[in-house]
Structure formats: C-alpha cells, structure tokens
Amino acid sequence: MRTTWIYAVLLAPGVVLGHGEMAGDQPDVLVGAALGLVAHDNGAGDENGYWRVPGVLMGGEALPAEQGAAVDEAMLWGHYRINDRSFAHAGLAYHGDGVELENLFLSYHGVAGQPVHMRLGLTGASFSPSSMHHRAAGTFMESSLLADTFWGRDFHDVGLHADWKPDANWEFGVEIWDGQAFPGSKGKGTQDVYAKWQGSVSDWKLSAGAWAMRAAAGQRGDSRYNGDGHSHGGVVAAAEPVDVRFSGDSELYGAWFGIAAPPIRNVVFGLNYEALRARAGGQLSDETRVADYSADHLGYVISPYARLGKFSLAYRAEKLSLDNHISGAAAQILAEEANLITAAQPERQTVQLEWEAARNIWLQLAYTRDETLAESDNRVSAGLLWRDELYRR
What is the CA radius of gyration of the chain? Predict the structure, then answer.
C-alpha cells in the first residue's frame, strides 16, 4: 500500500530495484529512519506472558502483543552507491527486544550484461510477502500468523540472493542462507527459490508468485524463551517453558496473489491472499528424552482493503491447520512440553483503519479477534507510525 522507492528498497530489500533500474539511478548517499508506537488494551500472551500457539513449534522474534503502550519498532538505515552497478546498505532495528544489526549487504546489478541482480551479506528474504514484517513497509500494525509461526516473524540471515528479471513482468530468484533464521539453525543451511509476476489487465493491477524453501535444523529451540537468543525482553517468568529442541528438516511451499481494481469514485479496492504448506520431519528432545516427530501444517491469510485519499480500511483473516505426529516412549511428555497438543485450529481476524495525518505520519486504529491460544485474547490497538529520509546526496 505504501510503495515509494525508499521504503521498498531499504525496508524490504527483496525488491531492491525495479526492472531496468541500476544503482547509478539512485542517490550517492541516503539515510532514513522509521519509528512505530503502539498501545494495546489487552495482551496476546498466556498468564505468564508467553505466546506459544498450541500445535506448532515457534521461535525467532515472534513475541506477543503486550498490554499498554510501547515502541514496537525503530529503524535506522543507510545506503551508499559505490558505482553505477553496485551499492552498500546497512540497517539497525529495534523490535521490542533490543537493538540489532538487521541488514549489512553489498548489491550488484547487471551481472555479465544480463538483468541479474545479486545481494551478498546479512539481508532479508524475497520469496514470500509474509517472510518479513515491518510496520513502515506494510499495512497492519501486527505481523501475520504466517510470519510469526513459520519464519519467527522476520526472516533475516547471512546469505546470497540472486534474481533474474527477463522483462518488466517476471522475476525468478534463488537464495542460499547460512541457516541462522528460523526455521533453520546456524550453519545447517537454508535454501529457497521463487517466481513472481506483476502486470495489469484492463486497468486491474495484478501480482502473483510461488516459492519453495528447505531448511535444516540441529537442536533448534525456541529462542524467544529458552536462552538461545531473546528471553521475553530480558524477563524470565516463574513458569519458564521446558527447553524442547528440534533436529531435522523442514520443507515449505507457498503461493500468493494480489489484485487491485480500477478506482470507483476515487475508491481503490484490492485483495491480497497467501497460502502455504509446511512439512517437517526429525526428532524432538529435552535433556533426557527423545521422540520421533513429523508435522504437516497449512496456513492461510486473506486481506481485502479499500483506500480513499489519505484513509485506508483493511481486514485480515488468518487460519492455521496443524497436524503433528509424535512417536516413541517419550512422545506424550515431549508433546506436552513442546505445546503440540491442541483441540482447535488457531485463527485471528483484524480490522484496521489508517489515516495519513501529516507528511510521513500515519495514525492507526485496529480491533483484533485473537483465537490463537486456548482462550480468546481480543484487543483494541492504537498506533502511530513515522518515517522519513534524514539525509540524501
């Protein structure tokens, strides 16, 4: 919905430059920042503040919405053009659990005289619209269930990205990662491939894509709560979850599309949809037990929206269909410890109104019906988003 070049480039590096654009077409130096504030009248965690969706192994940075007001996102990034075909990019980010280096990569365009773009370093993925969540580049204040459960909210890793754009409509890409990002583990390796198409038919704007990913994990735990990385903002509750680890392989496949109709009396109507399948096989283990584990999950998200001038109204419906199989003498105990037993399928609905109140400032109001845990955690959320260029040369 917000498609200016700077935010598409620097917040979502998977769409770094459009077809035919070289680094030389951009400024020599560009520095930008974004800040997101949010207030929830109710949190999304359980009685101990944890958010562990029953039936699925989670990790990464998928921390819950918390009651009260807070800074939920702050970003500072910089871009330096090396020459007409290459540039360097670095970015710092705060997502409620500490400041971290989120991007540090080199980008090169026009490999061997072909429309091939390569990116090397710490960067975000490009295969799926749900693989990363940034308020300053998206529509909703909260990330999607797909992002939270299958990629730990924000997929950033050290790796190599390469894409080929044979014309203005098509893009084909491959990405090879170290494996540090969920659902992989460091040094084990993650790979993905994708194809995208965008164009217009009779003034209808269309886009679509398909992708596949494979990730390997070795003793991967829930880094939000077990000390592998983040620890619930540094606070450890009395009933800390048992540290259950997963070792094995995950395969994910997905497809998505977007459609925007021609304006009707200055109102633009559109729809975005994505679905994926995630399969995993391997072993679960705690300090003393081991069990065989396999999973076959489905996830869906659909989001219609309407936009009129400086106002936009969007609705998002999300649902997961989770299927787990655990066998062995310790199967029941590990299933309970890993929170894989569930009688219901998680789902969530959100309605959000957004107003561009001033230059580079947006106000947001949302209602969320959250049925991801055993008890519903419905909430009203209010937010403010600011983003701007700080320096350009």
Answer: 21
> In the chain, which residues have pLDDT < 70?
1-25, 227-238
**What one-character-per-residue DSSP string does 132-187 give?**
---GGGSS-SSPPHHHHHHHTT--EEEEEEEEE-SSSSEEEEEEEE-S-STTS-TT
* The pair of three-digit structure tokens given for residue 169, joined into one six-digit string: 């409509």
328: helix, coil or strand?
A: coil
Please give the torsion angle defined by the CA atoms of residues 361, 367, 371 and 372, in that order, rounded to the nearest 10 degrees: 10
Q: How would you label 177-210 residue by residue, b for 16+ Cβ within 10 Å and e otherwise?
A: bbbbbbbbbeebebbbebebeeeeeeeeeebebb
Distance between CA atoms of residues 89 and 105, nearest Å: 6
Q: Which of 342, 359, 357 is nearest to 53 (CA)?
A: 342
CA distances from 2 to 6, 10, 144 (A): 10, 13, 17
- Give the residue from 353, 378, 382, 358 showing the smallest Cα distance to 368: 378
Report pLDDT digits (tens) over 81-108. 999 999 999 999 998 778 999 999 999 9
The pTM is what? 0.90
- Distances in Å between the Cα of 232 and the Cα atoms of 79, 123, 157, 336 are 32, 24, 21, 21
Distance CA 241, CA 48 (A): 10
At 33-75, the pLDDT tens digits run 999 999 999 999 888 889 999 999 999 999 999 999 999 999 9
| Cα–Cα distance measured from residue 253 to residue 53, given in angstroms and rounded to the nearest whole number | 21
The CA-based dihedral angle spanning residues 99, 356, 378, 54, taken in that order and rounded to the nearest 10 degrees: -50
C-alpha to C-alpha distance for 371 and 205, rounded to whole angstroms: 33
d(C-alpha 43, C-alpha 64), whole Å: 7
- What gap in Å lies between CA 272 and CA 269, rounded to an integer? 11
